[in-house]
Specification:
Layout lengths: L10 H5 L1 H11 L2 E8 L2 E8 L2 H9 L3 E2 L8 H6 L20 H10 L4 H5 L2 H16 L3 E3 H6 L1 H11 L6 H11 L7 H24 L5 H7 L9 H32 L1 H9 L4 H12 L9 E2 L3 E3 L2 E3 L4 E4 L1 H4 L34 H18 L4 E2 L21 E3 L3
Parallel strand pairs: 2-8
Antiparallel strand pairs: 1-2, 3-5, 4-10, 6-7, 9-10
Helix pairs in contact: 7-9, 7-17, 9-13, 10-11, 11-12, 11-13, 13-15, 13-17, 15-17
The structure holds protoporphyrin IX containing FE (HEM).
The site of protoporphyrin IX containing FE has 23 residues, from helix 13 and helix 17.
Protein name: Cytochrome P450
EC number: 1.14.-.-
Enzyme class: oxidoreductase
């Protein structure tokens, strides 16, 4: 029998990550493979069962800070030039206590209560997008709804002036593009993003407004403030972590509803079940299908596998979320599922900071879409549905629908 080998950049994984990860979950749940990246080869492990993923996410022998396992020389080979090294210096790339300090400086802006204050504004943005869509009988959900909604919400939250948003969108699109072939364009966008943010920071220092940039500029935790570079890193992280993930929840979630008409009808009749519905859409679609950038800081043995210092750890969220030892009928979309302890927002100290915001956007967006277009239908054959080429974030290229009968 041919030995099972994981190819994260392979065609099969791109087309159906759930079945690929599921096969490893069944046959080789702690899988050793070689990751080919930046012209080098790195030893790595793919973890696919729910319990094992949780064990690795809790394990403090795993670091998220590459500086703990690579020399300056090796890090240089990863090709991050000094003027934009803020991209690898944010709290998601740090362990405690650095992580704790950074997270506590931003945490206040993302509590469920603070986020609830955005409800009115998110509802208004949603209705405006639906008004535009209503002018036609057809739409691409990605272009008209799933992409602009999180972008406008995050721009408003941060305090990006309306007149700068078109340019801001160009930068954010380039920044979240992780393909190696577009590396120079991404780096150029990062430099412009940094200069722009520097100007906003300067303005908000002098004249604070009711926006996140002002709050971060003035945030103080036990006398400690964010440095200029930490501010760039934090805002960069919010864009990278908060945009495409939410876009994917709205896009893939809509596709899942359109492909499961009984569940769609249930939610249409009972909008009050939106909270469990969104958790199930998060589980079923797993917008972050796999997590990486974790390394073992020491040699250790796990369930008979010998993990070495410096080995990379990949966490298969998409397979943990469909582990039959943890979820009943995991391949079934059940919008009433409860409890639903999916790990779509990760687990442990790096648990998604923006979860309350993503949930609120999901609650508002799905209910409003179904209410406005009760007869919405998929206008593409299943084989024509294209997924974006991203190993970690699972999202649609486009989602054509007809809006009324
Ligand atoms: C459906 C939407 C979202 C999903 C599925 C998602 C998923 C995740 C996951 C899996 C992690 C953990 C990463 C890891 O441990 O390696 C994470 C962390 C994070 N997310 Fe989200 N996210 C979403 C939306 C957002 C939004 C809207 C924001 C903010 C605007 C945000 C900000 C962050 C930040 C800052 C972190 C790092 C937290 C830390 O290091 O302590 N996310 N997210």
């Amino acid at each position: 029998m041919e030995k099972l080998m994981f190819h994260p950049h392979g065609k099969e994984f791109h087309q159906n990550p759930f079945s690929v990860l599921g096969r490893f979950r069944e046959e080789d749940p702690i899988h050793r493979f070689e990751l080919k990246r930046f012209g080098g080869t790195y030893p790595a492990w793919l973890i696919t069962r729910y319990d094992d993923c949780m064990a690795f996410l809790k394990d403090n022998r795993i670091t998220r800070d590459v500086k703990n396992v690579m020399s300056q020389e090796q890090i240089k080979m990863l090709n991050v030039s000094e003027d934009i090294d803020f991209v690898s210096d944010h709290m998601l790339a740090k362990d405690t206590p650095d992580h704790t300090r950074l997270r506590s400086l931003v945490h206040q802006a993302f509590t469920p209560r603070t986020i609830e204050n955005l409800r009115g504004s998110i509802e208004q943005i949603t209705e405006q997008l639906l008004d535009e869509m209503e002018k036609e009988n057809k739409a691409d959900i990605m272009k008209s709804f799933a992409s602009p909604l999180p972008f406008i919400v995050i721009s408003e939250l941060m305090g990006i002036p309306k007149e700068d948003r078109a340019q801001f969108q160009i930068w954010t699109n380039a920044i979240v593009d992780t393909s190696e072939s577009n590396r120079e364009l991404t780096n150029q966008a990062l430099r412009e993003f940094k200069d722009y943010i520097a100007k906003l920071i300067h303005d908000r220092r002098i004249q604070p407004r009711d926006d996140l940039i002002s709050k971060l500029v003035h945030a103080d935790e036990n006398g400690s403030k964010l440095s200029e570079k930490e501010l760039y890193s934090m805002l960069f992280l919010l864009v990278v972590a908060g945009l495409e993930t939410t876009v994917n929840l709205l896009g893939s979630g809509t596709l899942a509803l359109l492909q499961h008409k009984e569940e769609f009808e249930k939610l249409k009749q009972h909008p009050e079940m939106i909270a469990t519905a969104v958790e199930e859409l998060l589980r079923y679609t797993s917008p972050v299908v796999m997590m990486a950038n974790r390394w073992a800081i020491e040699d250790f043995t796990y369930k008979g596998h010998s993990i070495k210092r410096g080995d990379m750890i990949f966490i298969g969220i998409g397979s943990a979320n469909r582990d039959p030892n943890f979820f009943e009928n995991p391949e079934t979309l059940n919008l009433n599922r409860s409890p639903n302890r999916h790990i779509s927002f990760g687990f442990g100290i790096h648990f998604c900071l923006g979860a309350p915001l993503a949930r609120l956007e999901g609650h508002i967006a799905f209910n409003a879409l179904l209410k406005r277009f009760p007869d919405i239908e998929l206008a593409a054959a299943p084989n024509d549905i294209q997924w974006r080429k991203n190993v970690f974030l699972r999202g649609l290229e486009c989602l054509p629908v007809s809006l009324s009968k």
